[in-house]
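Today's session is about reading a structure prediction critically. Students often jump straight to the picture, but the first step is always the sequence itself: look for stretches that repeat, for charged clusters, for runs of hydrophobic residues. Only then move on to the predicted structure, which in these notes is written as discrete structure tokens rather than atom positions. Here is the chain we will use throughout the hour.
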Amino acid sequence: MSAKKHIIALNEQEREQLEKIARSNHRSIREKTRARVLLFTDTNRSREDGGCCKDSEVASRLACAEWTVGQLRRRACERGVLEVIPHQEQSKRKAPKLDGRGEAQLVAVTCSAPPPGAARWSLSLLRERLIEMEVVEHIGLETIRTTLKKTRSNPG
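Below is the predicted structure for this chain, in token form.
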């Protein structure tokens, strides 16, 4: 078995702050669990004092996955121990195709009369109309479908 690549060695100040977070009633469960994971994996504490545990032991104690413990240790080594506690927004998430104004225009078109020769609005007709109105350059049918489902529109 290989040695751990990411070692957590807390100083006294970091340990106090993590213990405060772990006991807090004003923090989310996720933040409290992250603090506990870091406290359990601290190599500056002996096993009897609640530190220096294996990932599998920490995972079973806190009812989380062993992979979660390893990833949290990795991020703590890369970013800093106290930086991994709060939730961070996903950096690679794409912006939505339709913003609030675009959704409103989609619903308005859906509630209007269908084009001549069509009994009702289809997803492809809605897509063509949005592109024609220059709301978006291109959009998928699934985006239109989920947007309409989300808005609970009633086209009649």
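Discussion point for the tutorial: The mean pLDDT is 90.
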